[in-house]
Amino acid sequence: MKRFLHPLTLLLLIFLTASCSRDKDPVVPAYTLSSHQGLIIQLEWTTGGSASQALYETDLDLYLDLGSTPIAASESLRQFEEVHLRDVYRDGTYDIYIGAIDVSRTTDYELNIFAPNGSTIHRFTGYFNRGEQGEVHYLRIRKQGPYYTLIDL
């Protein structure tokens, strides 16, 4: 009986050690978001005065592309810009571009990314100097199912 007890005790210890170990949550990078409703990307800016003054003095646009294919664009003249990365869009790497169309004063901008009906998840900031024009390839978002990984460029 004594010989049988030793292997049984060893087996019991192995079982208890394995069953009491912590469950490991998947490691999620800091810039990976989870949303079953997609993401909203908003671009707002200021030139130092009111919102209406900023809209009058600067025209910025916002673009969402998948590779070389345009997916969404917001090119409003007199309102801030917003595009949606919808949950039904296919998985892949999406690019966010900010277009400086007309910048008559130094302009500070915020690029806000959040889930619908949610608070801001991430905020990126930058600026354009007076007279600057062109597009800035600002951010990449890798979509994999309900997971969105933000890649700061």
TrEMBL record:
Keywords: Signal. It comes from the Bacteria. The lineage of its organism: Bacteria, Pseudomonadati, Bacteroidota, Cytophagia, Cytophagales. Residues 1-23 form the signal peptide. This is Uncharacterized protein. It comes from Cesiribacter andamanensis AMV16.
